[in-house]
Specification:
- There is one protein chain.
- The protein is of the alpha+beta class.
- About 15% of the residues lie in helices and about 40% in strands.
- Strands 1, 2, 3, 4, 5, 6, 7, 8 and 9 form a 9-stranded mixed β-sheet that branches.
- The chain is globular.
- The protein starts with a strand and ends in a 10-residue tail after the last strand.
- It comes from Nitrincola iocasae.
Length: about 230
């Protein structure tokens, strides 16, 4: 079954699934709802358009943690917030923003629908709307689109065989193995509530099970310093 690969690299990423009000969380890897939102932006699918979004939710997702990144927390202030009674004004409110710094993830989507994967691959190269890594201000430092990133391989084999995408720092040794996470089909794994069940305007999400494993780093390493 074919697999489409994309790379998510940047100085700041955020993939929250439980954010509410003044606290904006992030998971330690890209969420399915977040990456599908990114793909929807590339395809020009509106927030209220469930008909075109639904086929994307059927894709099976996997993530390879090429550079896991460092958890960080920032804060922002907002002024003149209307209180719950609708009459009074809160002069200033402090909100927290969690994010991952300096991370690189290789994401794969597997499907028997080759036409759908081809459309996504084309859209990522020339997106309808700007693409970001979880928040609009978190722009990618590398192209999300990968040349020759549509492979006639299973999801696991594609993640297993693609070269390392992280930029290797001088003196840094390439990791011997990389962590991957993928959707479980045997009822085991960690429960994640990031499976879209409706348009992004309605914001209804269901559960999916995700398992982790380790794979050996492919022998061909990209982005190594001279």
């Amino acid at each position: 079954m074919p697999t489409l690969l994309l790379q998510l690299t940047g100085p700041m990423q955020s993939w929250g699934t439980t954010s509410r009000f003044d606290q904006r969380d992030t998971g330690n890897e890209p969420s399915k709802s977040g990456v599908l939102g990114l793909i929807a932006a590339a395809l020009g699918i509106d927030r209220e358009n469930w008909i075109d979004l639904e086929p994307l939710t059927k894709l099976s997702m996997g993530v390879r943690h090429d550079r896991p990144g460092i958890p960080k927390r920032d804060y922002q202030t907002a002024q003149n917030i209307i209180r719950a009674n609708g009459k009074e004004i809160q002069p200033t409110a402090v909100t927290t923003r969690d994010y991952i710094a300096d991370a690189a993830f290789l994401v794969g989507f597997e499907s028997a629908n080759m036409r759908l994967l081809e459309n996504v691959h084309t859209a990522l190269r020339n997106p309808v709307w700007p693409l970001s890594l979880g928040r609009k201000s978190y722009v990618p430092s590398e192209s999300i689109w990968i040349e020759n990133g549509l492979l006639d391989l299973s999801l696991r084999d594609a993640l297993q065989n693609w070269p390392w995408i992280a930029t290797r720092r001088r003196g840094e040794k390439a990791p011997g193995s990389l962590r991957i996470t993928f959707e479980s089909d045997d009822g085991t794994g960690l429960l994640k509530m990031d499976q879209p069940l409706s348009s992004f305007a309605e914001r209804r999400f269901g559960a999916r099970l995700v398992r982790s494993d380790w794979i050996k780093l492919p022998s061909e390493v990209q982005n190594a310093p001279a």
